[in-house]
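Feature request, filed as a ticket because there's no other form

It would be nice if the structure record came with a short human-readable summary line next to the tokens. Right now we just get the raw output. Example of a typical job, pasted below so the devs can see what we mean:
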Amino acid sequence: MNTFILSLTLAAAFLLSGCNTVRGVGQDIQKAGEKIEGVATKK
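Raw output as currently delivered:
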């Protein structure tokens, strides 16, 4: 359980460090949406 929480914390820190502004968060969400859309259209 502690390993899981530590992993989640590290992942969150890594993701948030890449998008330290509201604009950056929006761009990251948009890119993730495009990736999901691309996978969905392939199937």
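Something like this underneath would help us a lot:
Residues 22-42 form the longest helix (21 residues).
Residues 2-42 form one domain.
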